[in-house]
C-alpha cells in the first residue's frame, strides 16, 4: 500500500485530479486532497506526482516509509 499526501504548496491546478481522478480531488479550500490513503499502488499516482507543477505530491510505501515518488 502507498500513502499519498499533498503539501500546502499545491496551487489547485487540477492536473493530478485530471490524470488520476480516483486518487485526487480538489477540495473546498481549492487544493488537491487524496480521497483515500493508503491506497493500492497505481502508476497513475506516480504520473500525477511527476506532472504536478509544484512537486506537491508525496508518495511513500505505507509499510516502510520509503519514497516511491520521483521527488526524493
Ligand atoms: S497537480 Fe499539484 S498543484 Fe495541481 S492540484 Fe495537483 S497537487 Fe495541486
Automatic annotation (TrEMBL):
SUPFAM superfamilies assigned: 4Fe-4S ferredoxins
Name under which the protein is recorded: Ferredoxin
- Give the top-rank taxon of the lineage listed in the UniProt record for this protein: Bacteria
A Pfam match is Fer4_13
